[in-house]
């Protein structure tokens, strides 16, 4: 996921240099490197993944707000959309960055509190057990959990195409959630036996944690979830609105309402209509959409950019070393997971 994010950044900066403007989205990148077919793949995959995830974020956040504020579901979803959608539309880059910084600080604080409470019964011996047969099934979820490539074009624009700063932001920014995931997984896997769950039981460990800590863990989990959803929601709104602005051929640098309305209203309506419709679509998006859009496509665009399309007047450094071998491995790994999932689904109807 780090490699594909760097590949997108590399192609994005090259495209900005060639077009002489910022705010370049995946559409322009795919059009320049892969032609009409690449544009169609990028457009439909990007739109589907973003809308599906925004629906899921709204469904979960409105559920949390409804439980704690006592508001009707539609009011909670609308309130969440207005607050964070308004921040994205009216806020400056500095203000959005400050809000995101506060949210991230809250995530870290609640995460530390959650670990302190939940790790009381940690059994280290449980972490020595492994089930490698479960690895293939976990890859799509891991890929979906580490989706950030949608904001890479915005990142490149904000950092003015500085390749060194872009590389640092992607690597460090991905390492932080990786560390959080590893620590949280260790707490969950090390607490399974102490929570009374056998290795052959299919039980939600979060529900067990809530029940085993006298109601202390539940509120912390909800705060952590809401803050994490808010940061993800802001990133996906910015990414999709920028994508739609480029798709609609709107002037660069102007904050028009159309892309934000198209970004905010459809997920809100679908979340209120029936959010569970999209839960299976999310699994599909993680398996196919994410690994196509943020797995195969970045490597294919970079291949075309490096070896097929004429080079720009300024030769920019490659953010991902290894040449054709690395690009081939990225495409093969992503494609291998997709084929494995297809075969698995065919074998288990």
UniProtKB/TrEMBL annotation:
It is a multi-pass membrane protein. One of its GO terms (cellular component) is plasma membrane. InterPro entries: Amino_acid_transport_2. Signal peptide: none annotated. Its main location: membrane. Pfam families: Trp_Tyr_perm (PF03222). Keywords: Cell inner membrane, Cell membrane, Membrane, Transmembrane, Transmembrane helix, Transport. GO terms for biological process: amino acid transmembrane transport. It comes from the Eukaryota. The chain crosses the membrane at residues 37-59, 71-90, 102-122, 134-156, 168-196, 216-240, 285-304, 325-343. It is found in: Cell inner membrane. PANTHER family: OS07G0662800 PROTEIN, TRYPTOPHAN OR TYROSINE TRANSPORTER PROTEIN. This is Tyrosine-specific transport protein. It comes from Gossypium gossypioides (Mexican cotton).
């Amino acid at each position: 996921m780090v490699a594909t994010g760097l590949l997108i950044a590399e192609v994005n900066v090259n495209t900005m240099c060639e077009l002489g403007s910022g705010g370049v989205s995946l559409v322009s990148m795919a059009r320049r490197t892969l032609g009409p077919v690449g544009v169609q793949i990028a457009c439909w995959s990007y739109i589907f993944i973003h809308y599906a995830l925004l629906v899921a974020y709204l469904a979960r956040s409105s559920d949390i707000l409804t439980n704690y504020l006592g508001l009707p579901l539609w009011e909670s979803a609308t309130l969440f959309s207005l607050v964070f959608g308004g921040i994205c539309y009216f806020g400056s880059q500095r203000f959005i960055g400050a809000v995101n910084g506060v949210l991230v600080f809250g995530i870290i604080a609640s995460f530390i509190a959650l670990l302190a409470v939940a790790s009381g019964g940690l059994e280290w011996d449980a972490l020595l057990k492994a089930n490698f047969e479960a690895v293939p099934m976990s890859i799509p979820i891991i890929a979906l959990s580490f989706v950030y490539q949608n904001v890479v074009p915005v990142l490149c624009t904000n950092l003015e195409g500085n390749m060194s700063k872009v590389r640092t932001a992607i690597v460090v920014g991905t390492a932080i959630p990786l560390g959080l995931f590893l620590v949280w997984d260790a707490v969950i896997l090390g607490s399974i036996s102490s929570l009374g769950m056998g290795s052959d039981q299919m039980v939600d460990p979060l529900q067990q944690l809530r029940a085993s800590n006298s109601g202390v863990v539940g509120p912390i989990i909800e705060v952590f979830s809401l803050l994490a959803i808010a940061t993800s929601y802001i990133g996906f709104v910015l990414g999709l609105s920028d994508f739609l602005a480029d798709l609609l051929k709107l002037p660069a640098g102007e904050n028009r309402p159309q892309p934000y309305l198209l970004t905010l209203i459809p997920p809100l309506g679908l979340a209120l209509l029936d959010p569970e419709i999209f839960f299976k679509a999310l699994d599909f998006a993680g398996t196919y959409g994410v690994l196509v859009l943020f797995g195969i496509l970045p490597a294919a665009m970079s291949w075309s950019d490096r070896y097929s399309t004429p080079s720009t007047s300024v030769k920019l450094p490659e953010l991902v070393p290894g040449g054709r071998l690395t690009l081939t491995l990225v495409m093969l790994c992503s494609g291998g997971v997709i084929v494995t999932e297809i075969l698995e689904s065919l074998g288990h109807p």
